[in-house]
Write a structure and sequence with these properties.
It contains 12 helices and 18 strands.
């Protein structure tokens, strides 16, 4: 028995062999074959195979319900950083290594798959981004090694890796009837990866496909960065970001220190704002604010641990304006009747630099393959962030003769990894 795992920054999925369809996605939660890459550690509860915790939607729900504990998301972004071997406080006097947090999540996926496959699973095909870490081959290799260590830790004896956009190309290939050159745009929560691949019915019969991969390129900019930009541009100014302090003795007003706001807008740093030392430091900063309402709102966020909720509302607002139009972001959980507007134009302004960088990476992928934009036959979009209209249209404009196609935004990589796993393990 074997499996294929798409361990994503925002969502994950796992596929197992199926006698009828070849490979099938495992139902990880009722009615869902994809699950948020999230773990919630409860402050209270018995230790059963590790600290008490919940995974996926249950983890997010525990946080939203205000239960005592710590929510961990975007764990994939920690791979390749010095944090991976460090221990972090998860509440209740418990400390857990970041690597063990990743391993615990992989074990949950494996357990769900084994329950539905009715057999132990010891072999796995894991997806990986083109670059875990931009422009740093050493740290990039360390990131893959850390993920492999976590997989071994939970009982996988044999682990192989495949680039996530290559897996998406396999999924696309199953739907075409002639050879093409496709640029796969896999834009998820943490990375934007591009691969130029030759695909076609005859090529699909080959086990070794290395020669069909013409280029890989990617950047560590994607959905969570978009959420961060929206939060900094539209939400956090109401809490003092970019504001100035009082004028004292005729001296020019100074800008409020911005470090806490950048941390509040970065998923894996939000909990650092809640440390006793950091809270004490913020409590002493009242005099830095000319507008006392900014300070009071900030302290509500910090003292009531609402940082992840602000980030979630930024993400929801981004989705609301993704296809055009406008929305209002409800912030009444920090101050009664507080809300802010967000239009598509404002989102465009906030995201423009990131989107241009992603489009540049797509152009670079084609250039590395020795191809001009007109030589790309198809664009294949996958990953949750390709639902952003502005991003998809900018990419389409960069390759005007290519046919734009969409896969399952959340499951096409897992489906393609399943095809790859079957070809590899069933040799």
């Amino acid at each position: 028995m074997y499996c294929a795992i798409d361990f994503g920054t925002s969502n994950s999925a796992i596929a197992v062999p199926d006698s009828a369809s070849g490979m099938r996605l495992v139902e990880l939660e009722p009615g869902h074959t994809t699950m948020p890459t999230a773990v919630f550690y409860f402050v209270e509860g018995p230790e059963l195979d590790g600290p008490p915790r919940a995974f996926g939607r249950a983890a997010v729900a525990a946080y939203v319900d205000g239960l005592d504990g710590r929510l961990m998301r975007s764990m994939k972004s920690i791979l390749g950083s010095s944090l991976i071997e460090q221990t972090t406080d998860v509440g209740g006097g418990r400390g857990v290594k970041y690597l063990d947090i990743v391993a615990g999540y992989l074990k949950h996926l494996k357990t769900r798959a084994e329950a539905q496959a009715k057999a132990p699973i010891r072999r796995a095909m894991l997806g990986r981004p083109v670059f875990f870490v931009d422009d740093d081959p050493v740290r990039d290799a360390q990131a893959q090694a850390a993920l492999e260590t976590a997989a071994a830790q939970v009982g996988f004896d044999e682990v192989h890796f495949q680039y996530e956009p290559i897996a998406a190309a396999f999924d696309y290939e199953s739907s075409i009837d002639k050879e093409q050159v496709v640029l796969v745009a896999d834009i998820g929560g943490g990375t934007s990866d591009f691969s130029v691949v030759r695909v076609g019915p005859e090529r699909a019969k080959r086990l070794e496909r290395k020669s069909d991969i013409l280029a890989n390129h990617g950047v560590h900019v994607a959905g969570t960065d978009f959420d961060r930009r929206v939060e900094l541009a539209a939400i956090l100014p109401e809490y003092g970001f970019g504001a100035y302090g009082p004028v004292i003795a005729g001296a020019p007003a100074r800008e409020v220190p911005s470090g806490v706001y950048f941390d509040l807008a970065t998923w894996h740093l939000i909990n650092t704002v809640y440390s006793p030392g950091r809270v004490a430091e913020l409590r002493a900063m009242r005099g830095n604010y000319a507008n006392p309402a900014h300070y009071e709102r900030l302290m509500v966020v910090v003292e009531e641990r609402l940082g992840h909720e602000l980030a979630a509302r930024a993400e929801a607002a981004k989705i609301d304006v993704a296809d055009g139009g406008a929305t209002r972001i409800d912030l009444s959980h920090t101050e009664r009747a507080l809300s802010v507007p967000l239009t598509e134009a404002e989102a465009v302004q906030a995201l423009d630099a990131d989107i241009e960088r992603i489009v540049g990476a797509a152009r670079e992928a084609a250039a590395q393959a020795g191809l001009k934009p007109a030589q790309i036959d198809a664009l294949y979009f996958t990953g949750g962030s390709t639902g952003l209209r502005l991003l998809a249209s900018r990419l389409a404009d960069a390759f005007p003769t290519a046919r734009a196609m969409r896969g399952d935004r959340f499951a096409s990589v897992a489906t393609g990894l399943g095809l790859c796993a079957r070809r590899w393990f069933d040799r």
